[in-house]
From TrEMBL:
Cofactor note: Binds 1 FMN per subunit.
SUPFAM superfamilies registered for this protein in UniProt: Flavoproteins
Protein name, per record: FMN dependent NADH:quinone oxidoreductase
Residue intervals of the Flavodoxin-like fold domain: 1-184
């Protein structure tokens, strides 16, 4: 089984989403024998944002990296994403990574009846951190966006582990992290879903 671990926070060791995504991955390592884990830190190794030169494929290094990003995603059975909420949505580096996944003929195709996802059968676990409280609120553009984009790719098993209100106070942060860690999905539960 292959697991792809993506982190998007710019906060390094102070990142709650990194702490949560690492806990999810460690749980999978502990419970799934022979698990192969690939990792990309989008802060340390960002994917370039799409530009006209990207579409023209004029930079061979960018083309090779984009193909590697897509191949890692397609090969993964499970994708764990550390996604902090920035300005009510996802980090721009995570959006740039997603832009490299949205490739017609590889992760989706258009038909006479509309789009069809081609990358189904994966599990996506999003480890989300938020300074405020946004779940179910009109200010949440993170969860709906991630659910929609992965559904567009044919992935309907997207699960969120959240720590919210972490900027309210040190106690809020501690409590939110503890609640999120206590709610980590079990690998066998995901496999059975």
């Amino acid at each position: 089984m292959k697991l792809l671990h993506i982190d998007a926070s710019v906060l390094g060791d102070n990142s709650v989403s990194r702490q949560l995504s690492a806990a999810v991955v460690q749980q999978w390592r502990d419970q799934v024998p022979g698990l192969e884990v690939s990792y990309r830190d989008l802060d340390a190794q960002p994917v370039p944002h799409l530009r006209s030169s990207s579409l023209a494929q004029s930079d061979p290094a960018e083309v090779a990296d984009a193909e590697q990003v897509l191949a890692q995603f397609l090969a993964a059975d499970v994708v764990v994403i550390g996604s902090p909420m920035y300005n009510f949505s996802v980090a721009s580096t995570l959006k740039a990574w997603i832009d490299r996944l949205a490739v017609a003929g590889r992760t989706f195709k258009y038909t006479e009846n509309g789009p069809v996802g081609l990358a189904g059968g994966k599990r996506v676990i999003v480890a989300s951190s938020r300074g405020g409280l946004h779940t179910g609120a009109p200010t949440d553009f993170q969860d709906p966006y991630l659910r929609q984009v992965f559904a567009f790719f044919g992935i309907d098993n997207v699960e969120f582990v959240r720590a919210e209100g972490i900027a309210y106070s040190p106690q809020h942060r501690t409590d939110a992290i503890a609640q999120a860690l206590a709610a980590l999905p079990q690998p066998e539960e995901l496999a059975a879903a």
